[in-house]
Amino acid sequence: MLLLLLGCNSEKVGDLLPASFDLQEYGAILNKRVHQLRILRPRPDHFTVLVRRVPNCTEHGAYGCAVDHFFSKYYPHSYHSCQMLYDAKEIGNLQKQANDLVTRIEKLRNKSTIGKTGKDSLLLDVSQEHETLTQHNEKLQKLLHKIRKLKTKDALSGKELPTGFATFKYRRSAALAAQSQQHSHPLLWITEKAPEPRNVSWRSLAIPLRMLPLIKIAVVILATLLTLFFAVIVTGVQGIAKFEKLEKWFPPAMAVGLIPGLSSVLTGYLPSAVLKGCEYLVPFAMLAMAKMGGSVSKSKEEIKACNMVFYFLVGNVFFLSLISGSLLDEIGESFTHPSNFPSHLASAVSAQADFFVTYILTDGLSGFSFEILQPALLTWDAIVLHTCGRGEGQDPYLFSIPYFRVIPSVSLSILIGMVYAVIAPLLLPFLVGYFCLGYIVYMNQIEDVYETTYETCGQFWPYIHHYIVVGISLMQVTMIGLFGLKSKPAASIATVPLLVLTLVFNEYCKIRFLPSFRNNPIQEAAELDEEDQKNGEIEINCQNASTAYVQPSLRRVNLMKPKANLTEPLIASV
Amino acid sequence: MLLLLLGCNSEKVGDLLPASFDLQEYGAILNKRVHQLRILRPRPDHFTVLVRRVPNCTEHGAYGCAVDHFFSKYYPHSYHSCQMLYDAKEIGNLQKQANDLVTRIEKLRNKSTIGKTGKDSLLLDVSQEHETLTQHNEKLQKLLHKIRKLKTKDALSGKELPTGFATFKYRRSAALAAQSQQHSHPLLWITEKAPEPRNVSWRSLAIPLRMLPLIKIAVVILATLLTLFFAVIVTGVQGIAKFEKLEKWFPPAMAVGLIPGLSSVLTGYLPSAVLKGCEYLVPFAMLAMAKMGGSVSKSKEEIKACNMVFYFLVGNVFFLSLISGSLLDEIGESFTHPSNFPSHLASAVSAQADFFVTYILTDGLSGFSFEILQPALLTWDAIVLHTCGRGEGQDPYLFSIPYFRVIPSVSLSILIGMVYAVIAPLLLPFLVGYFCLGYIVYMNQIEDVYETTYETCGQFWPYIHHYIVVGISLMQVTMIGLFGLKSKPAASIATVPLLVLTLVFNEYCKIRFLPSFRNNPIQEAAELDEEDQKNGEIEINCQNASTAYVQPSLRRVNLMKPKANLTEPLIASV
């Protein structure tokens, strides 16, 4: 993860250099990825293949049995075992109830101990509390018994899903199985590289594969609609949020008028605060949509959200500040008269250089200070703590770095830098300042604040590369238009091959590097196997992999965190 | 092969039924393919993987050695052996010379035997002939010696190419190796399913892989230019070929004027004969271009030619007869105003129904009679025989069915039928007649005339399916335009989702069926292995595969056909 951001940051410095630099960058990041994969040798995902659309076993009527039969028949020397997925919604709900109960019991007990030490409690109160405590305990007992019953093999076998994780004895076999077509019906026995256990999106895996295309289309349509109509929505909300209107809708706001000066501050800042607030909420909305989309892993969900947020920002920050009319009109115009697009863009871009200098300055300063101070997180945490009452045992501040917010905004700055590198080079010093500040802030955040919740070994890079290519292409389109406006048709036409070359270069990068980000090459896998065999670790690693993929709701849960000093056995484990 | 055409023919009957029929058809053809693959069990291509971009072995400096090292290391239990490709141009040239010499010696010997039996030859003549015969024999001896020397291992090792065929002990391992990425550099050790030995395009495999993208782009551009400017070329050639102009350019043509009536026949038929001739030549030109494109197998070359010819016909027969202006103008118009396209198309289509009835009748009758009588083939054969003097031993008439000519013209008829099914249903009986006649003609041709030169097990089908989908989409676009013209906007808009559904259906077909046409599924491969092992044939099959992929120029060649009654050992073999 760190290495990805490092790659991203060194790219920031290199974003103004030509494409050949980009190629080196891609190669360097691929090398880092391979190196990182070697370091993280005992990873269970190397040994495991995700199998979906498993048909039912004709003999025993179970999916797990079918997986065992299939793989032990067709991968006889290398198949180890399988872990199936179960429909564990019920267990999850019960566990949530049990957790709630435990929290309540905790609170009651704390109260009574405080009462005892305080020695000012009434006897009646104590007896009442004791009663509720025993009631709660009984309830908890019942719940735990129910959960234990649901977790037995017989109860689970009825809730098997046609999805599972097949573990192999060697990395090589797992890599081979993940990359090949198993059945002549290509939509049965779909195999793919398993994500890391902490990276698995368990909820998405439970969605039937038949539904996925529909859900994906729906998500894309939703995200497109949000991008296109965001300006409309924001204008509407801003209209309502004007102080004069607020007074109409919500008469108590009149009280603000009593404090002199406050009303003018509110009138001035409210609309822009609403805009910023909406913009701040969009990444979270996109992430929520991406999570609905049924990706196999959390990293893929974040990558999807990254894509959607990037295009949202390009549309609603870059293009919307360039154009006078609405985004929709402009898009319609570009579709009907595509040849006018470059000159249109060029004239708009050159008029808006000052705006983007301001944008980068304010976004840089406000964004980075926001990132360091984490006000939103603190507020949210305070709200949750004082309303829902979070369990004491939970760690308050362990989040992973929000890629879906960071990467698109940095990529947008790269894009702005690209486009203005030729037209208004004075913007570049500001951008370099922005990137230096960003480097310092994010290095600090990554090292000291955020936790690594999963490790993708640079899977985000190809997308960052794509955003940079979008930036370069947009720069070249602007140049074509600009030369046209300055009545230099020869220069304008000479830039067209440059654009074509950029696109060809992008295709080459995809062919040259992308497969190694997607697949686990056989040579690498076999070499890691060999190293493991030398150290005698291969069996342990395989054994670890074969137990790593257990759904969160089916894990042995310790209902109390270790710091709790409870001695009663009933809440120790299920 | 037969099964492909059968599939194609049953499709002809079903082309007017809805898409669900198409789905069944695809499934049925996939089943036939799987069945056929089972029947053809001992095929060497099942055991073999084509490896390209092999790096040089660091120890021994040879490619073959590198392949052996790599696969025996990473596929330790299943790798059998490898057959490398060599740069055999020189040997090929020498062999051609040797063949020529043998033909000449044959002729001389025949002459002398005829002379002896005729007993009217002069002694001087005989001795002279004997002298040239011994001279030729000496030359041949020298040539054969040279060839033998070039074919030794030492001489060949210097001419190794970084391409080879790796044979595995089991089908399963070959299928796994073909479908996976071997090296973390995805452009090294590129593996793919090997084509059948008779299907390999040896000349293309010798082209360095780096050059291929450039060549492919060049071929696509050439084909596009030919399609776009064909009308211009033909009009130009027709202008020259008018009888009045011919008299100017080629005065001896005046002699035609002496025969009464001939000149008027010529004036009438010459231009249309030129058009038909050009159209007849196009498929061959396209095939030649496709052959330059560096495809791995002959079948892929033919498929490429099919694609190019189909789009050529759609452009130059279907669209060119619809529109009044030039094709280029029309394409430009559609690009700038895409929304006008359907109504434009609809009005043009409904005006030209009569023309297409005539087209299908004449094309059907003339095309099929041409196919049965094979006049072009006979003429070509006569020319070759009397000018270059083909070797006596060669079989004169063994060609495979020209898919690149047959499939596009049949697909075009399907397309015309689709488009006119709604507008002018009277065309359909003619079309049914055309297909029935076609079925009879081609069944006869396939069974009795053409030879099977390679077996693809239905690889052509996905392309035919694609052509049918193009036809259906075009029909729906026409319908949208037609409803618009008849001022029924509701019906027009209601047809748009139908078009979208057709495209979605096409995507579904690609996901559902295409992988099984491209890959060898592991289950299938393992089951065939098992059957072979039961019969104890697996080792023989693997052994056969390990010697099947020898370049034509490196094979042990019998310079004389068995029917020749020669006893002299020198020309027996190399």
From TrEMBL, chains A, B:
Domain CSC1/OSCA1-like cytosolic intervals? 46-203
Identify the keywords attached in UniProt to this record, alphabetized.
Answer: Calcium, Coiled coil, Ion channel, Ion transport, Membrane, Transmembrane, Transmembrane helix, Transport
Membrane-spanning residues where?
Answer: 214-237, 249-274, 280-297, 309-328, 412-442, 463-484, 490-509
Molecular function via GO = calcium-activated cation channel activity
Indicate the segments forming the CSC1/OSCA1-like 7TM region domain, all copies: 216-483
Record keyword Nucleotide-binding present: no
List the protein's name.
Uncharacterized protein
Its cellular-component GO annotations read: plasma membrane
Q: Domain of life here?
A: Eukaryota
Q: Which InterPro entries match?
A: Csc1-like, CSC1/OSCA1-like_7TM, CSC1/OSCA1-like_cyt
Query: Which stretches are annotated as coiled coil?
Result: 91-153
